[in-house]
């Protein structure tokens, strides 16, 4: 069998294994069509309305390309028996993502990575049923890849490392859909530079500049797209809106049971896998649209702000003026807004690249460059650009407030006098 | 003021008129973010998940480019006072589109063009409030452009003709998002070839090949993307699902009122503008997901088929074998499927281009080419390719049925013996 | 071994056969770097300065892609032993092209296809030496492919037919370098639709629209790029310039022997292969630059016109006004220009596609579409667009004259009164 | 008037000033069609065969875009009277470039910048005649811009600074033609971020990441394309070839006068402007092709190596092993090659970006970022990536030698034992 999917990023995606094709057709995987890849970013970059479904297809495609290339080119260094487990893990790595995951997880104590593993290993899912056709322990193997416990580090690193199939696809895809040009890099060169080595994967020196460019692209996408202040404003509103609903729930159980039944198990911390899978962007937005008519003005107001895209404004908070946030918040309160709901702090920080630090909390697998003499060297030792980004946190902390405050003279004068940046 | 939107198709979209910016920020316009541009096509072309919001932004951008170019280049032939009305009509031309419009309109007797006009002219909308800031009669003017009643044919043709700002954007945009290459054409050349003439707009002969290429691109997109059998299968399922719900409603009023409140006014044919605006793709899908657990197995089965993308299969129906459809349908019934819900006929036909036929039911404004000697000539007289497509209907009629019928020998033998094409 | 070439059209071109790599490094193949692919077209499309070298690399790449795909996918229908001969023929198909071939061949009775075969089969060339390493009769085999005498029609059609590796590369390449958008088509789809059949190659129906689009692209490139009036003006000047030199030669042998030694064998019709290979665009232009200072004002004038791009202007000649050309030419003479050198007729006609016509002078291998039921059908029977182009000659005949004639009132009035088109 | 040029990098280039159009049509400017933009790089990147003509058209286009944008957007900060001088300087900034300039200038003491000024200011050129139509002192003004003596620093910096119209075009153009993806940056964003300030030009902070990306792109193009070892090998051969001809000249005057007349004035150091303009890539290559048959085996051998692309191989020279070069060179001599002609040292170093260093030999105009509060800040203070590249020289020194030395065991063992890198 061969099925072909038209993909704007990779052109054609070929599926020639019935296991992969049947996984794509499961209810759990199809559900990813209903969850946007970039969450609130499409409020800022209107072109970026793509779903996690298309991203997962792309990750599978890259994994298929690499594993087939390895099988043909490195028969001694790579075991072709790993192809299917790698491809399945690539396809399914995000299958547990939920609606607005990052915000949601913070409030309701869910964990999309745990859900991913559960979907793969729980006997009740369509995904599990199909994986078991390969072998009874195959679901566990796929789950192990995703949780970094799989014994072969080559497979683990293809799915999760500082330059893995996931990141390669999302950078290219988010670049394509936002229209940003920064995120493009030479994936064809990277895909022919990648080599399996005993401890994982490495990159031939001839492809080093392409890897370097990938790191810079990643940095630029974080700075320009993922950390955009307007998208984060929408995330702040979303967080406040859900928090308000959660607080109102105990006194309004009947209301929420009628209008927002799929959220109730989460309000009550009694949710199971089926509850989790019942939620998607459309369901959440449908609930928010109902809440727009609720009598609690905070709930209805925040719901309207979210649905109709009324963004909050923001300023950057730096160490030297962090103490001024209280004064600003006080002025917001004096203007009639409850600060708990109409102001917020949003942090966005990223470490574009790092070498291995054994004592760090979460040590990273560093990118290794294979030199012509066979020696492996860590990337930042060879690249001054990468060295400039390595180990340095980028991003900022922002204080969000209602737009109307920009007309408040006292508010503005605090900003100006303390050299607070917008 | 100037606001800039990143757009993957047009790169940057500049908004420098507060009226336009405020229209974009209305609840009615923001709602377009929640309605996919291509409906069920994204089930086939997974990349094409873009919304009507981004399409409308693109149509505005093209209208802005043309009207500014006209103002600078043809001060005698074009009146710059028309710029704003043209741009507003371009931005708002689809503001009345609803969720799954084509299917929905057939069942519930709604009309998205009438809704567009209502949103523009009804005093209750945010859109109308903003348009009235220009002048009290400005909403009516914008609505007149959309209903082809505006006195200046140049403006009307920019918004609606065989080569208008709407079609130019959707062909480029749908091409970009599906990843099809057929739909690309040289919009830059077209935009500098377009000329205002007394009766409307025309194209300089030097740009004729670009116009020709646009017509071919349009034809290819219809054949390859818009008429794709799998997308139409999903449309058939959707149509059956909504029809089933409508039939069940009288006996299940309480159920639908609770689970699908926004559809009830339509079941009762008592819907008003607010009811219409309350529906979007996410709301509809949320209802369908609820229906998946309804005790009526037809409703729940069709809801699952739609949500989890279980496509129907199909064959083409031609005149010479139309009489065989009954036999096929009978076999579907014998296999235990109620034909009314599990089979369907779907027609997709398009006239890629036509010259003006005064006696036709809906005469088209033909494309005029301005020759170097000043004479206007209808496009198909100059282009053999366009002549080959002019006035000829393309597309087909398909009979849809459950996939499992492909294993029914009698069913297959009817298909083969009657030379019915898949 | 594997050598990789960066190519802007195909991204990376991989060479993994030493025969191919060594052929690329021959003097005869490297010489193609010094011959522009599009001749005088770069005077009109300044971006299109690419050489026959890069085109030949691209044709090789497409042939490699198809033959490897055939070997993997159609082991019964395609013989992998044909891969190398196909790839060599693809690489070398234009190795005999000379400087400004079309103009040159008309004047000096050379034939680039015959030269191609001679380079391949003559024992004196580096190309032949390398080909003989495969087997003593391998050069003859490669030459037979190019002259359509090779027994396997699949191989012949891959190199030369209405949709062959040569045309696919030049359409994409010329599109890329001119910046025209018309010429793009979906080569990836075509390359996975192509199937070897007993009588040659065919295309699966699922790829028919891509083939259709290729035919339209080809038509557009001819109309828009290859037949551009300004490029043809430069061809007319070039033809007149070389003709003048040839006429002057008998009385100026010493001059030409000193300034233009490599042309002398051609003036004397005594040229051999080495003489032919000594000529390239740079050598010709160097001679022309010398001729700019010759005392014969026709020669020097035409040389300056060519080198400094002083284009002639032109009008279209149609049957109904062909008799007016004499009057125009007479006026050119009266203005002091010798018509034989300062006016010219230039024909450009093309048959975008044709089906097989056994009685035609040069019958074409038609494009066959493989339908799902296994039947082969000729393309134009399935595609109305192709039918509209099939068998119809497109192009025009132009009369060229000095630009200054546009200021001659009588000249202009003949043009206008007889409805002669520019 | 308006003339439109199709350009693959900028799409359409519009010329609406007769001065510009007439400058394009001068003999001196048309001559740029015969000089490759990238010299020997097309031996490595076969797609990069574009000429200085197309680059100069692109620089003009960018200058036109910026000056028109400035005129509309910054009427107080920018004087529209500077538009034409800026556009002329942009178009003509490279008009004095000669064939293989860098190599040639080293050997024959020419200076393409001085020639550029001479073409502009000398009364004998077509360029000067046209510029004088603007005003008698206009040629001097244009020349002053190019020599950095023009009083308005805004104009000077648009033509020559660390982010000028020249660099923007060549990065994009060389990227397009080589097929490298590294060189792409968001020129549209840069062009709307650029602001005229009293001391020159600056960039709004909102466009800082685009500027940052431009610096990285520039660095990558130097590392990957401009400094490619194989292209430099061809430059070494070229340098040796011309040096050999120069040495042979005194004893072979008649030979060179007959075969290479346009080089003689340079051999004799008596060259004038006309001599300079008579040389181009084609003329040089024609001479080299003649020299392939000269009896001096060094001359003929080097000519063949250059024409037929027989590249030298190379190793990197670092401080710690610089003393080993002599041993390597000695082995080359022992193998029968005269080291002066068959070995060479080639340095390629670049400073990707630097801030202003008043005491440096050639202080650079630094890139200034305009912050929201109106303060100008030097780029590397805001960007860690740029800081990592600022003031640091990148590139390497290479020792070139005949390929056959790779089979010499002693030679290889010196390389390996001293950890010399290829």
From TrEMBL, chains A, B, C, D:
Signal peptide: none annotated. This is HD domain-containing protein. InterPro entries: dGTPase-like (IPR050135), HD/PDEase_dom (IPR003607), HD_assoc_2 (IPR045509), HD_domain (IPR006674). Residues 48-180 form the HD/PDEase domain.
């Amino acid at each position: 069998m061969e099925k072909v999917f038209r993909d704007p990023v990779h052109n054609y995606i070929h599926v020639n294994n019935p296991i992969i094709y049947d996984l794509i057709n499961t209810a759990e995987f199809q559900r990813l069509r209903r969850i946007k890849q970039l969450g609130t970013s499409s409020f800022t970059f209107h072109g970026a309305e793509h779903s996690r479904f298309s991203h997962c297809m792309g990750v599978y495609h890259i994994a298929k390309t690499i594993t087939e290339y390895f099988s043909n080119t490195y028969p001694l260094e790579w075991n072709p028996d790993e192809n299917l487990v790698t491809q399945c893990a690539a396809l399914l790595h995000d299958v547990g993502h939920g609606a607005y995951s990052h915000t949601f997880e913070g409030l309701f104590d869910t964990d999309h990575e745990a859900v991913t593993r559960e979907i793969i290993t729980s006997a009740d899912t369509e995904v599990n049923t199909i994986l078991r056709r390969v072998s009874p322990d195959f679901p566990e193997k796929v789950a192990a890849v995703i949780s970094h416990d799989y014994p072969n580090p080559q497979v683990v690193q293809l799915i999760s490392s500082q330059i893995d199939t996931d990141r390669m696809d999302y950078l290219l895809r988010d670049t394509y859909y936002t229209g940003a040009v920064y995120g493009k890099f030479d994936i064809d060169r990277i895909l022919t530079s990648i080599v399996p080595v005993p401890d994982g994967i490495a990159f031939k020196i001839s492809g080093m500049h392409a890897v370097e460019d990938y790191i810079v692209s990643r940095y630029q996408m974080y700075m320009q797209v993922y950390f955009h202040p307007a998208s984060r404003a929408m995330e702040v509103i979303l967080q406040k809106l859900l928090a308000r609903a959660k607080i109102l729930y105990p006194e309004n159980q009947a209301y929420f049971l009628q209008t927002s039944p799929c959220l109730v198990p989460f309000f009550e911390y009694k949710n199971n896998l089926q509850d989790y899978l019942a939620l998607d962007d459309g369901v959440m937005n449908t609930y928010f649209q109902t809440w727009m008519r609720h009598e609690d003005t905070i709930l209805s107001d925040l719901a309207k702000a979210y649905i109709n895209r009324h963004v909050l404004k923001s300023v950057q908070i730096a160490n030297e003026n962090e103490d001024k946030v209280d004064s600003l918040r006080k002025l917001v309160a004096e203007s009639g807004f409850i600060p708990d709901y109409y102001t917020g702090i949003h942090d966005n920080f990223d470490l574009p690249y790092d070498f291995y630090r054994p004592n760090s909390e979460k040590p990273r697998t560093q990118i290794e460059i294979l030199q012509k003499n066979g020696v492996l060297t860590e990337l930042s030792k060879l690249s001054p650009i990468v060295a400039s980004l390595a180990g340095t946190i980028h991003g900022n902390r922002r204080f969000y407030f209602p737009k109307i405050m920009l007309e408040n003279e006292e508010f503005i004068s605090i900003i100006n006098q303390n050299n607070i940046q917008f």
